Known about the structure:
Blueprint: H1 2-12, H2 20-33, H3 47-66, H4 73-93, E1 97-103, E2 109-114, H5 118-121, H6 126-139, H7 143-160, H8 167-189, H9 195-219, H10 227-234, H11 240-268
Antiparallel strand pairs: 1-2
Helix pairs in contact: 1-2, 3-9, 4-6, 4-9, 6-9, 6-11, 7-8, 7-9, 9-11, 10-11
Amino acid sequence: MSVLLADIAIDLGEVDHFEFNDIWRILFKDIRNMGGAAWDLKGCCGPEESIFLAFYAGYGLIFFFINSWAVMKPMRLLSVFVHEFGHASACWLTGGKVKKIEVYDNEGGITGYSGGWKVCVIPAGYVGGAFWGGAFVAMSGSRIGATIVACLILFALFISLFHDPNKTVVFISIGFGILLLAVILIEWLWFHPFLEYVTLFFGVFIGVYSVKDIYDDLVTRTAEGSDAVACNQMWPCCLPRCVGVQFWLIAFAFQVLGLYIALVLMVSND
């Protein structure tokens, strides 16, 4: 899908005015050409891909060296929010009802819900955070893809305000809402590319945070009340640390897959 969106961004950037039908024309044209995606990454890496990789590596270094600093606390809280919204999303998708979404200043959180399929809801926190981190990276290689990422985050923050949020969730929603709206306006009215590298930072941070969080909470120790313990209660044969290792491998794979897909889409549109 991001292949299509990247081409739309290129085609629409070449004209001053466009009609809604032009978007569908470009979409259908690209659907016919999807088989030509450079899955072998032949032709990588040109200047665009090299810059993307440099930013990805830089963001990874930023995480590992200053993640614990106070200045990064808003991003850590956003990562916790994505974790909790993963539980909420799985609950909604399996027919449950979400009562509250809370994120705490100590970087914990809770999602109150009833109903739903617990087999999906319980793993959806850690795994969901890792998935969205990888998805954000994958979509950050194009202007439209990055815009969709920003809109998805804005939508999730907005929806959370209707589910008994605590003060931290309200602050996160307002703060990141204003930031993302400002970045979208800058991208589309004044300066390009800009949004792509903002959403890439979000994807790297949230994805790597999930990998680290799983390792710290579920692999190196068994924390009472954790999602891994809850999984063990459903399936006694799966020890909490074994669940943690599985979550960690999945989280790592999502981040690698996201980077790979981003490069494939960028090379395919060169």
